[in-house]
């Protein structure tokens, strides 16, 4: 690995080098370092907006290299079963390799700035609760309002939304261990992307690394036009991985 080429986003820390994901040119994601792989289920608050994550299944990630489905067609999701070789899909990585906040729009309020790069939206909708994050940031002064902003931005799995605290002069990022979650969104009856947390390096099929970030979402439905990242297309194409959503069915 060429360390010089790895850039780390402000507010993020790079995971130990043993953890990384390699994107294959026309096949799966290869996961190295045995990070935890589990299922997280988006759960609503009392008004029906996305609010928290509920833990679901745990998957065996103990092998030195685990292949996760990227085309959306495996019958053994979240793992690859070779289906990508026999189905029609476009595996090309079309995302920019620029740091995502360089192209973000800024929404400035009295205490915080919200940075938003819509292209990376994973359509998880944590930003909609209690009046929408773009409105809340423009008025937030109290600790309660600031906590609401941290909750909503911090739950954005894609890191599309990032908060800058003007008083502390730092980017807010929730602490994550290097891990991967398979997202489920029963509120709209779809399965979501792979949520990659804790600064795991992601290497393109061309050998270059994307900017390392505390949280990103990788497309696993095969339909994003911002690959390898999710752009919410799983919601419109009604992607379903067929996995049960019950904690008690854990495969240890
Ligand atoms: S998983 Fe979100 S666009 Fe494919």
Structure explained in plain terms:
- By secondary structure, the chain is mostly beta strands.
- The chain folds into two domains: 3-95 and 177-239, no CATH class; 100-172, no CATH class.
- 10% of the residues lie in helices and 28% in strands.
- The strands form three sheets. The protein has a five-stranded mixed β-sheet with strand order 4-3-10-11-13, with helices on one face.
- The two termini are 32 Å apart.
- 42% of the residues are buried.
- It binds FE2/S2 (inorganic) cluster.
- FE2/S2 (inorganic) cluster binds next to strand 11 and helix 3.
- Indicate the proportion of strand residues: 25-35%
SS-based structural class? mainly beta
Overall number of strands: 13
Bound molecules: FE2/S2 (inorganic) cluster
Q: Kindly state the percentage of residues in helix.
A: under 10%
The number of distinct structural domains comes to: 2
SS summary, helix count: 3
**How would a textbook summarize the main sheet?**
5 strands, mixed
Side-by-side strand order of the widest sheet: 4-3-10-11-13
Shape: globular
- List segments where confidence is low: pLDDT < 50 over at least 5 consecutive residues: 248-252
Task: Give the end-to-end Cα distance, rounded to a whole number of Å.
Answer: 32 Å
Averaging pLDDT over every residue, what do you get?
95
Radius of gyration: 18 Å
Elements, N to C (H/E): EEEEEEEHHEEEEEEH
